[in-house]
Fold:
Amino acid sequence: MSIHFSRMASAQTRDSGDGFSVKAIDLHKFGDAATPVIVLDDFRVSGRPFPPHPHAGFSAVTYVFEDSPGGLRSRDSLGNDLVTGPGGIVWTQAGSGVMHEEVPADAIRELHGLQVFVNLSSKNKLVAPRLFRIDKGEVPEWRGDAGDRVRVLVGSFQGVSSPLVPAEPFTFLDIQLSHEISFNLQNAHNAIAYVVTGEVLVRAEGREQKLAGEHAVALHGSGGLATFEALHAASFLILSGSAIREPVIVRGSFIMNDESQIEAAAARYRKGDMGHLARISPYSSESSYRPTFSSCG
Structure:
């Protein structure tokens, strides 16, 4: 078994100047080691609403950071309309297609979150759309003797498992680190470590990589144990899933394997097969919105 490191990537800040800013990780630097993650954006939003939009062929995931002043309102054409507070996560498994909208739950409070697009393999591209959500109090935690804490949003860590189980295996951990932890990278899986604040030293099989805040690295290979040591008290995320070795075609908010699948998804959208979702009135007291995605939006 072996673990290799990708090139390091720094978050690139983009600010629209009207209430939406994002620190985006350029996943192209990771090559195939990024899969199944397609988008990884650390965003802040407090702007005017954008209309509902369709998704198909992947899962759109939004994690509301614990430091977020406000919560997230999620709506979709399946009939869901819910609010998730700081520390919660919403996983919209779009599959064959769904209309979707996410906005700050409170028009006067900024929303700080992480937007992740997780690709679906070909066998699940047309799975029925479904929404998963867990609030802060439902997220299981692992705590170490030295004070380290791991919130297990999806997947498992050290015998602690999340109740959120998507169609394909995935691990999403939010880690507050003052000492050291180890992470077991499974065979045929990739992992991305994104440091939000602080500094971490990643070690695996004699290799090491320092990661400061707003930097990320991908781990890939045949699997094994990686160690994360806090050089300065750190907050970071680990996202890991099966390495999907299939063609990827991105058109707007559709992610498929070939052009014919993209055309079929567009046809389903035009026919209304992805459902309908009325737009929230602009400047209502309930929400204000900018897209929580970038390159696939």
Summary: Residues 283-297 have pLDDT under 50 and may be disordered. Residues 259-271 form the longest helix (13 residues). The two ends are 37 Å apart (CA to CA). The domain at 3-242 is CATH 2.60.120.10 (Jelly Rolls).
